Amino acid sequence: QVTLRESGPAVVKPTQTVTLTCSFSGFSLSTSGMCVSWIRQPPGKALEWLVRIDWDDDKYYSTSLKTRLTISKDTSKNQVVLTMTDMDPVDTATYYCARTSVRATYYFDFWGQGTLVTVSS
Amino acid sequence: QSALTQPRSVSGSPGQSVTISCTGTSSDVGGYNYVSWYQQHPGKAPKLMIYDVSKRPSGVPDRFSGSKSGNTASLTISGLQAEDEADYYCCSYAGSNTGVFGGGTKLTVL
Question: Facing residues of B90 across strands?
Fold first, then answer.
């Protein structure tokens, strides 16, 4: 079955760079049509789509965060890595990775449990 | 992209029906039939309930249905059950391989 799991530091200081890892099973990012997105949710607030990486290594970023985000994949390890620079307290959120379907459609069918990142000095 | 507009809260009694709206623009909801809906219980990850406006993934009860008219999509839950109490989020494709979520709606089962 498809599973995803996020991991990363629970606390980072302002201005630091955070690296989050999404480890998944049940599908391969080398398979045509497969994609993984990162989505975040500040405490008590709404979901926000951040970035997506596709099986062919194409990458798509949220316009508002494009300059701070980098996404990459390691197909051999079944992992997707998100890096976000210049962290600020407003970036405090639960960060989810989700498998994304994009062929003549657009939805997130499997989600990880999320990892809470708190930005605090 | 601006977030899609959803009512902050809706409520209904067990057995009743409720509808949650999701309003966007011609650049997202109105431009594509790629609206999806997610259910999120407290402390849990979102769960896909509806995709492509009105399609249900396997395992989602047929009490959940979706529709769209112009720039507004809707999620209807009929035969409300206590377990339906949760937050619901809509999402739409917004062009250029990006997506946009709604602000979320809290459903209370009275």
Answer: B37
Q: How far is CA A86 from CA A41, A47, B85, B90, in A?
A: 18, 21, 37, 29
Whether B69 has its CB under 8 Å from any CB of chain A: the answer is no
A38, exposed or middle or buried, with CB in 10 Å at 0-12, 13-18, 19+?
Answer: buried
Q: What is the mean pLDDT of residues B19-39?
A: 97
Counting one residue from chain A and one from chain B, the pairs whose CB atoms sit within 8 A come to 65
Whether the predicted pLDDT of B98 surpasses 80? yes
Verify whether the Cβ–Cβ distance A105 to B52 is below 8 Å: yes
| Whole-number pLDDT of residue B36 | 98
Predicted pLDDT of residue B15 = 97
